[in-house]
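Run log, item B.
One chain of 295 residues. Sequence copied directly from the ordering sheet:
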Amino acid sequence: MGQYSIQDLAQLSGIKAHTIRIWEKRYSIINPKRTPTNIRYYSDSDLRRILNISILNNSGLKVSKIAQLGHDEIAKQVSLVADNDQYLSNEKNIDQLIMSMIDLDEVVFNKVISGVSDTLGFEKAMTTIVYPFMTKIGVLWQTGNINPAQEHFISNLIRQKIIIAIDEISIASPAKDAPLALLFLPENELHELGLLFAQYLAKKANYRTIYLGQKMPYQDLLTVRDIYTPDILITYLINPLKENQRQQYVDQLAADFPQSKVLCSMSPDNSAGIKLQKNLHLISSVLELKEHLAN
């Protein structure tokens, strides 16, 4: 499916491109292919092999020894590492998630998430494993080096996990006078994983929530405002916008929801130069979101 540059391999595996080249020459651990225009690229199987080697190497096995193992033996050794550890280190777990995405392997994905959740709790699993994983592959999503099928597969699995966690919290309903959080994405925003996790955190903080999801027309958002006055409004602006468009949008939100604390998470490109209104707050991390929910 994939065609990865050596920089892509380095980004995903955490192994420096220079080191990959040395391993390639010294041990022939992978063999890049070439495009018709003679540009080197690596396949899904090359990435999978590099990730497996990274896991075994970080577990104490020398690369010279790993290079002597066949494909099946490497896979067996990786399984033994996973089975013998109560839970893998963060980097190893992230590598496992990347491989589950490449192979469209739900079993591996569930094993990693369940293992970390059972040990550290769902919130920690998201903040220490899933968020860094999404950050690691985010560059490849933007450049189109990940097949859309792989992106949809892994996004939907993560989405399912968050929804299940939200449902479990929802069993204990908050008080009728509990603060209200309104969550939505603007019309040009499709990726709602961050918003879903924000709903989970809001519910965990004993908020009532109104979740409107992705691609919310602004005029329809105002009809909700006419019925409810949310204590907190949470949204994400990740897709690129012109500076005047993003400033105009957040200014309009702050003006139309004057009694609400407006929390907006933006990509670094979108947040540059934004002027804040009194009730508008930019959030750049889960910790900041939790702090606003607590106050």
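Observations after the first pass:
- The first strand starts at residue 33 and ends at 34.
- The beta strands are 33-34, 40-41, 180-184, 208-213, 232-237, 261-266, 280-283.
Flagged for discussion on Thursday.
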